[in-house]
Amino acid sequence: MEELTHINDEGRARMVDVSGKQDTIRVAVARGDVTMLPETLERIAHGGIAKGDVLAVAQVAGIMAAKQTWQLVPMCHPLFLTGADIMFAFDWELHRLEIEARVGTTGKTGVEMEALTAVSVTALTVYDMCKAIDKNMVVGNIHLVEKQGGKSGHFRRLEV
Question: Which CATH number does 24-156 carry?
């Protein structure tokens, strides 16, 4: 197991100094989902939610969240993102909305946290917009799928 780099000599949290690292193209993909009543999923798909277009609002919220990750997660560096996108898929059998975020940058540190934050806030926005009709929704399964770039190279999550 690797030594944690976010701990200083006194055992306290610190922001890692990345000034000696090379700039590389970095991409991260994260996924998560919101499980809900079948009727709720149907209403999202066909624009039947009173608060508006759930997918459009959630997509913008997720992208905004990726851009603000450094303000939400204490040890994250502020990054210049070169791209951020949110994709949705309807799983009718398991009555859930699947969310995928892809975030990119060219820089000294990765965008895994930005992709995970984007998925999280996207899912929370779906929950917020639909909670009046479905309090049984479950936000979950948020995980890193893939990351590219940097010293550690390419990572792809093993399907378990």
Answer: 3.30.70.640
Phi-psi region for residue 82, left (φ > 0), alpha (ψ -120 to 50) or beta? Answer: alpha
Query: How high does pLDDT run on average in the chain?
Result: 94
Name the residues annotated as catalytic: 128
Q: How far is CA 105 from the centre of its chain?
A: 15
Phi, psi dihedrals of residue 120, rounded to the nearest 5°: -60, -50
136, 38 contact by CB (below 8 A): no
pLDDT for res 30? 98
Structure tokens at 129: 């917009």
